Amino acid sequence: MADELQIEEMLEYIWMLEEDHGKVESTLMDDKFGNEVAKKCLTEMVEMNLINLNNSRIVFTDAGRNRAERIIRRHRIAERLLNDVLEMSGNEFERGACQFEHFVNEEIIASICTLLGHPAVCPHGKKIPPGDCCTSARRNLGPVINPLSEIRSGEKVKVVYVTTKSHASLDRLSAIGVIPGLKLTIHQKHPSIIIQYGETQLALDKDVAENIFVRKV
Amino acid sequence: MHDIKTKSSDSEAIDYRIALVGNPNVGKSVLFGLLTGKYVTVSNYPGTTVEVFRGMYVGSNNTVEVIDTPGVNSLISHSEDERVARDILLSDEKKKIIQIMDSKNIHRGLLITTQLAEMGLPVSISLNMWDETLDRGMTIDTGKLQNTLGVTLTKTIATQKYGIGALRNSINSVNVPKIKIDYGEVIEGGIKRIEELLPDNLTVRKRAIAIMLLSYDEDLEKTLKFDKQVISRIHKVRDDVQRQYGHSLSYIIIRKRSEYVDDLLEGIVSYGGKEEKAGEISRNAFFFFIMPLVSFFIGLKVMDLLMFMIANYVVAGGQTAMILKLVGGGVSVGSYSFYLFSREYKTGRKITSILGTLTMHPVLAWPMLLVVLWGIYKIVGEFGAGDCVDFIENKIFGSSLEMSGGFDFKAFIPFTNIEYVFTHVNFQGINYYLGLLCQKFIGADNFVFELLLGKDAGIIQVGVTYSIAIILPIVGFFFISFGLMEDSGYLPRLAVMLNRFFKILGLNGKAVLPMVLGLGCDTMATLTTRILDTKKERIISTLLLALAVPCSAQLGVIAGILGRVSGLHLTIYFVVIFSQMLLVGYLSSKILKGTRSDFLMEMPPFRRPKLTNILLKTYYRTKWFLKEAVPLFVLGTFILFILTKLGILTYIESAASPVVKHFLGLPVETTKGFILGFLRRDYAVVSIFKALEEKAGNLTIDPNQLIVALVVITLFVPCLANFFVMIKERGAKTAFLMLSFIIPFSFLVGGVLRYILQWLSI
């Protein structure tokens, strides 16, 4: 029997292929894991009722999809944590995330997710499947990390991460000094948000402020 | 790139060039003026230098050229300014760099220094606004920093000419800053691989170019004219490196630089000193005397304006009105004082910084804005467009056929009705004397006489007189008030307040500069739409300026005429124009493709404006304006003259009259006014008003007719000068498209308004 880890890796890979291409050919699995391993695992997964094989196409069963979703969620939440909060970079954080996803349980993931303010996308910009904690987040009082737009005026905060849609706006923000680690004060919120750091007062749109995530200090 | 090359080829005598580089709003233009003796518009509003200015270094015998560049926070190009600045640095001229920093924001300045160092350019640094840094109790150990960087640092206060001599000396000892940033193994590897791909004829160090390419500066690839193969290999390297990181490379690179600068400043910047506080006397005067007085006036004025709007419906009994106004004043004093004493009194901040906060306060800033606008209207609309124009037009220029009757040179004694006449000046007007002179040679009905001095379209009598007598005073006074708003730092605060409104129009707060300038002169405002970041924003703002922003010449006359009729009608006028602006802006933001840029604007500190700078700026702007506008007015008058002579005007009039008569419900005689609108927006107003007045005879004018006419003429075509600028800035196709939208649209709005007014029976 193939080990649990191998199966989780495969489920994860199938999910990502489906996300990118919409459908999954079993030949792709051979390319990634090698002929023998792929064949053995796939048969086993069919037995465990995680996937169905239609000719050469791999289709998730409900149980399989559910399980894959949880793995992906663990992986991407881990990425966020390592990248944004622990500020690891490059290979280091990718490797970390890969190990992380296999040994944390749902409960820990839920609390990390809450701590990070229920992030919607991973650092690579891919969607993080929401968990129960995210759905009930509205009732949840004050996660540790909030978008800047939700902080009251007069509060002192520290930037944890910035997620903007485009390179250009991320670059503009960082060139003017808004980068993780920056300590700032919310000067006022209406009619536009104004933040103060050092000797700089910067006015910005709510749209921009929604993408700057901060922690109270 | 192109025009830089052509320029360098024709100037062989030049030894080297000095490029002024720095973040936005740090004082590059002031310094440029000091080094070259040439004036460029200086303002306390970030991003006003879009064009590149060049001038000769004073005392260099035309062998050293100074270049003023747009302010940027990074040399990786995402916007027009950044591109322009970067291209100057990459050009193959021999250069020395003076980097100007806002010394209180030294961190951001040094981020640029790191990039200059990577390029391998020789730099001298000016730590500008040194006074503001001291005021904030900040100390910078310049000696230590100078040793670390190996570059001369000069403390300067450019506006007071402090430290300029030392800065001039430092140009002889420029050095490449000793900065070496290690971007980490992966990125450094990428840099090396890209360096190998780059050609050898680059003007700056390969490392800098490699880093820019890794930072996704794709425009640079075009500028450097790499062939496709090289580009695809570079992209491959970049993508390889990118795969190792969760964030975009440009972001990682900026963060590395920022960390480097953090380390560099460790132990150099400290907040040991004492923050400059406001003097005891001036502070108490401000809190206990000036602010109560000012806020009382604000409350009074706001009530006054409100009551003016609904004047027809209030029993405007003197006493009730007076009591309401006093109550307004009282409430205002109460709320302003409450805010000031609870928040500001104990902090002892400088008065200018208190004002800086107050002028963007969520609530208290609005009444202030209203009063500021009212004040500008009084200065520009009433004094400039009314009194001054009357005097210059009727008395100085006068008419070619009639004597103006001269004027009295007199003095009023304030608060009394006594006026003291010194002497009567028996001057009948320039045009009258010119007319007399001409009549020595030819009769008043001669063709040439009519061409030059004719009452309807004489080039001197109408064209020249109009542009100097009417435009000059209005525009002059407007530029003075605009300069005050600009230099005090009020304009960026206005941007903060109006950002939400501009968002509806598909613009952002930054558009406040062209829009407010449009209230002075749409032609000039259309030129400044360049400061907006995206093409879509530029098109929308150009359209809105042409359509719905009346210039001061027009606004002055309109407000004068409607104000006399009733406050209600003036209000309706503003509501209609405003709603059309919203409607058209909103729709075009939905229809036009492209994006709106994010609103991200640094607030410059509130400063006491310098009168000399404002007057100088007004002088240069007015001069520029006259140079641009007078020929256009003369040309326009000439066209009008030909149209009249050939009878084409009558033809257009008769063709347009059915629409005017039946759809707008206006007398046929007003048609001529609308046609005049293309030439002179405010004269069109006067012409229509006169036509209505004549039609009404002894009766009073129907105010509804007046409103319809004025709304149409406001929305109607921009003046000729504005149209030419639209063609120049946006291209002929876009300009004509806009025109073909505006003309029918303005008539449509006028017609609909007529029926609504009828239906409401106002």
Task: Describe the structure in your own words.
The complex is a heterodimer of chains A (217) and B (762). Chain A folds into three domains: 4-60, Arc Repressor Mutant, subunit A (Orthogonal Bundle), CATH 1.10.10; 66-135, Arc Repressor Mutant, subunit A (Orthogonal Bundle), CATH 1.10.10.10; 145-216, Roll (SH3 type barrels), CATH 2.30.30. Chain A is built from nine helices and eight strands. Chain A has helices spanning 4-21, 26-33, 35-47, 62-85, 90-103, 106-115, 132-135, 167-175, 206-209, and strands at 51-54, 57-60, 145-147, 156-162, 183-188, 193-197, 200-204, 212-216. In chain A, helix 1 crosses helix 4 (62-85) and helix 2 crosses helix 3 (35-47). Chain B is 63% helix and 7% strand. Chain B starts with a helix and ends with a helix. Among the domains of chain B are: 2-7 and 14-173, 3-Layer(aba) Sandwich (Rossmann fold); 185-270, Helix Hairpins (Orthogonal Bundle), CATH 1.10.287; 280-358, no CATH class; 632-760, no CATH class. The longest helix of chain B has 36 residues, at 611-646. In chain B, helix 13 runs antiparallel to helix 14 and helix 22 (522-528) runs parallel beside helix 31. In chain B, strand 2 and strand 3 (64-68) form a beta hairpin. Chain B has a six-stranded mixed beta sheet with strand order 2-3-1-4-5-7, sandwiched between helices. In chain B, strands 6-8 form a two-stranded antiparallel ribbon. By secondary structure, chain B is of the alpha/beta class. Chains A and B meet through helix 5, helix 8 and strand 7 of A and helix 4, helix 12, helix 20 and strand 11 of B.
CATH class of the largest domain in chain A: Mainly Beta
What is the CATH third-level topology name of the largest domain in chain A?
SH3 type barrels
CATH hierarchy: architecture of the domain at 2-7 and 14-173 in chain B: 3-Layer(aba) Sandwich
The fourth-level CATH homologous superfamily of the largest domain in chain A is Ferrous iron transport protein A (FeoA)
β-strand amount of chain B: 5-15%
Radius of gyration of chain B: 30 Å
Instruction: Characterize the main sheet of chain A.
Output: 6 strands, antiparallel
Helix content of chain B: 55-70%
Element pattern of chain A in H and E = HHHEEHHHHEEHEEEHE
Kindly report the spatial arrangement of strands forming the biggest sheet of chain A.
3-8-4-5-6-7
Q: Specify the structural class of chain B.
A: alpha/beta
* Named CATH topology of the domain at 2-7 and 14-173 in chain B: Rossmann fold
What are the segments of chain A in which pLDDT stays under 50 over at least 5 consecutive residues? Answer: none
Q: What would CATH call the architecture of the largest domain in chain A?
A: Roll
Discrete helix count of chain B: 32
Total helix count of chain A? 9
Low-confidence stretches of chain B: 1-10
The best one-word shape of chain A is: elongated
